[in-house]
Amino acid sequence: MQPDGATRALVMSDVAARAGVSHQTVSRVVNGHPNVAAATRERVERAIRELGYRPNTAARALVTGSTRTLGFVTVTMDQYGPAQTFVGLEQAGRAAGYSLLVTVLEEATAEAMGAAVDRFVGQSVDAVLALATYDAAADALHRVHIPLPLVTVQSGGAVEEPAVGVDQVAGGRLATRHLLDLGHRTVHHVTGPADSKEARDRIAGWEAELRASGAPVPCYVRGDWTPSSGHAAGRALAARVRDGEEITAVFLANDQMAFGLLAAFHEEGLDAPRDVSVVGYDDLPEAPYFTPPLTTVRQDFAELGRRAVQLVLARLAGRELRLDPVPPTLLVRSSTGPLAVRRTPAAV
Questions:
Q1: Same domain for 173 and 295?
Q2: Could you tell me which of 9, 189, 259, 333 has the fewest CB atoms within 10 Å of its CB?
Q3: In this structure, are strands 249-252 and 277-282 parallel, antiparallel, or unpaired?
């Protein structure tokens, strides 16, 4: 409500009068200054709520030099991982008092990336976050001169810029180790696209765990993240089983491909986990409700977002900060089981 029935816009002095503090104290609370007593901060925040005061962001930016806004640029958000990465970033940014401006590029070129950054500069963002899981996007970032702090958010390894990510090599090893521990003599792998750093890191983890265990390293099957590519891989692997090849465990680089593969196995007369154990990656919301419920590797996108914003705040404060990759976790469900006597599918 307005003080004394006034209709003018509320200002900090109105909050100061209601809370019984100085204008400078209200400013410190609004701008997140740490040197404010807890009781005083609570009194100011209560006055803000009672009055319905909303800070003038333009005026605050003139005083502090900060718009409390971050720019986020990515090439795609049509897959679960990038979409959830954005959600994690937005939530973490909001918790830290920042809003997020988003640009989704149609192509990963230096020109497109440069134009996106120029737009962010024109909008006076404080820093830029870039999702760069594909080679073209990472290469474009290297060729763009950023006049602002830049943090690369990717699930693969770091580039030259400060970066945060999920430990994809560890995720590949987790999935493979689980299947080997169930008694499977080796693990076949359906990968993501060749130009994806995430996919290559998961391949590296899969291969490293097989070699560490002395297990054979079969040729992998290339996929493209889509259920249709998983379905095609499933048909191809089932044909090899029918020809007498021992294929009892498959690790897929994402859950969507795993869903496609399980559908193909069902069509080909193969049962999971009785004939072939299957592990996915990402833990899609549908994964626990599939038939069978899918064993998968979960990425903590909320933690990824928190670490990205933490790194941004450090850069804005002029501090160097290096963060370890976010560890993935294995969720064991009914699509995996111990090695059983192989049953060759009936001809269809």
A1: yes
A2: 9
A3: parallel
Let me know the angle formed at the C-alpha of 231 by 229 and 234, rounded to the nearest 5 degrees: 110
In this structure, are strands 295-298 and 277-282 parallel, antiparallel, or unpaired? Answer: parallel
For residue 172, the one-letter residue type is: G
Q: What is the mean pLDDT of residues 248-276?
A: 97
Domain holding 60, by residue range, is 3-64
Mean per-residue pLDDT, 159-170:
81
Given pLDDT bands bounded at 50, 70 and 90, which one contains residue 62? Answer: very low
Q: CATH no. for residue 105?
A: 3.40.50.2300
Per-residue model confidence (pLDDT) at position 179: 98
Whether 226 is covered by a domain: the verdict is yes
- Of 242, 251, 210, 220, residue with least CA distance to 336: 251
SS3 142: helix
> Tens of pLDDT along 12-33?
788 888 889 887 887 777 766 6
- Give every CB contact of residue 108 below 8 A, 6+ residues apart in sequence: 75, 134, 136, 137, 139, 140
From start to end of the chain, where are the E strands? 69-74, 99-104, 127-131, 150-153, 163-164, 188-191, 221-222, 249-252, 277-282, 295-298, 329-331
Residue 345 in domain: no
Residues 94 and 176 in one domain: no
27 and 133 together in one domain = no
Domain check: are 294 and 309 in the same one?
A: no
